[in-house]
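Hi, here's the filled form for the chain we discussed.

Project: internal
Contact: R.S.
Residues: 307
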Amino acid sequence: MEGWSKLQAGLAGLNIGQSANKFTKSLSSSVQATKERLGQVAPDEITELPQEYRDLEARVDALRQAHLSLLKITRVYETETYDYPTQIQESLTELGTTIGHGITSFAAANLKGTNLPAPQPTAPPEHQHKTLPHALGRAATTAASAILTTSPGAAEDKLGKALHGYANAWEKIAEARVEQDATIKQNFLQPWQITLNTSISIAMKARQAVRVSRLELDAAKQSLKNASPAKQEAARIEVENAEDDLVQKTEVAITRMKTVLENPEPIKNLNELAKAQLIFYATAAEALQTAQGEIEELAVAAEGEYR
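And the returned structure, exactly as it came back:
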């Protein structure tokens, strides 16, 4: 304890210019923070910040945590394949097709004017969205085609018709899914992240400035407490300056935290997320309701014929 006091007193006595003074304050605040962390400072020797400030701190922490928690989950909308099955197998197949297209196109372009036969460039592979709705739609379309092309009475094949209607429903849902994800990225994820990186971050920096200023004040108080008579006046002035600095930084931090908490953007962003999801699920419900009604009629008719 005595060693810390001597170090602080020695640091307070340094006077070798503005840069040295900043260094001294920084080191003193670091020493103070270490002493507090080690329990070497009595609670009544730690300057207590206003209750309003502490209440705002708790609310900003909750707001920041809310942004982080929701971002952790909703970031899946940035990756199209978040619900896509067997994407590894299909990706390998598509990779082979893409490589083949690249090789033939390169050969066709570079063998012109030579005695070697130039291969015809192949068509580039068609882009396929990798979502569960797209996968279901493609699977149902393939299944319907297989049934209808092999059935002797294709026009009357009820399973083929049912699969065709089911495929049409999922094609509509797949389009809605792509639109939903794009809307969420633009109207929720981007502004939600911007709020976290700007206004909330600014408030957090202002709070850090308050913390540093409070540590500097308490370090100055310790220096005053342990100062020799010859250095008492200089140490007292240092405490007064540190008090003024803490008051100013606390007021700035309170203003910035209030600004963050009063900002309506997070609620507007959340509304955009819910609205995009509502449109998607409403579209899906409507498409499936229509398809299910048609499939149910076909099922009843098929059961009647079977009996």
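Let me know if anything looks off before we file it.
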